Amino acid sequence: MYLEISDLKKSYGKDESYVQVLKGVTTGVKEGHMCVIQGTSGSGKSTLLNCIGGLDLIDSGSVKVDGKEIFGLSPKGLAEYRRANLGFIFQFYNLVPNLTVKENIRICEYISENPLNLDELLDTLGLTEHQNKFPSQLSGGQQQRCAIARALIKNPKLLLCDEPTGALDSKTSRDILMLLEKINEKYHTTMLIVTHNNSIKNMVHKVIILKDGLIKKDYENEVRVPASQLEDL
């Protein structure tokens, strides 16, 4: 397994405000696979993503990425882990408003030791003609494409996507999912996608469903539906 999670526990607060969000999660994802994490609000799915990404510190358990344990890493070690391994895509694009598309992407290109080719990436994501525009001049789908390009320019082994289509209409959502599918096939990027959308689980290799901080279902799709054929997006 490329990603191995064992008995992962995470809580917030103390005394009366203490809440245990993850109560012992154990699972794994193969290298190059796409995985959906689903669950109702408060089930722990975004917390799980943040623990894998080193954004939230783990109470106990184990998270191994490519055989390397991240639990117990120092802040500097976590920063290096994120720089070397991860790309992040969020529901809200977090683009720098006074930088162009190309400049937003280059923010992450500069910190990578082995970045992808920028012109090739712009072409793959359909951004070549928009590269000199500012975020305010882009549609929501184009801004999300820019955010995806910024995450991918680092050539990450693991792409963490938190509600990547949550702010988009159904047509644009389909376009973004087709794009993620294309990226997975072209670059063999391992992907974790947190989503409320029940249809997206049909296009991925693996599905994890959380409920109350525990895994309710954990299975591999025997048959995958191409993103272009998903219904009810």
Question: What's the short version?
Answer:
The chain has 233 residues and is of the alpha/beta class. Helices cover 28% and strands 27% of the residues.
Strand order of the largest sheet: 6-7-8-3-9-10
Report the sheet-strand fraction. 25-35%
Helix content estimate: 25-40%
State mean pLDDT (0 to 100 scale).
Answer: 93
Order of helices and strands: EEEHEEHEHHHEHEEE
> Could you give the distance between the termini?
30 Å
**Number of DSSP strands?**
10
* Shape, per Cα inertia axes: globular
**Low-confidence blocks of residues:** none
Compute the number of helices: 6
Radius of gyration: 17 Å
**Backbone structural class:** alpha/beta
**Main beta sheet:** 6 strands, mixed
How are the SSEs placed, and which strands pair?
Blueprint lengths: L2 E10 L6 E11 L4 E5 L6 H8 L7 E6 L2 E2 L5 H11 E5 L10 H9 L8 H7 L15 H13 L5 E5 L7 H18 L2 E5 L11 E6 L2 E7 L13
Parallel strand pairs: 3-8, 3-9, 6-7, 7-8
Antiparallel strand pairs: 1-2, 1-4, 4-5, 9-10
Helix pairs in contact: 3-5, 5-6
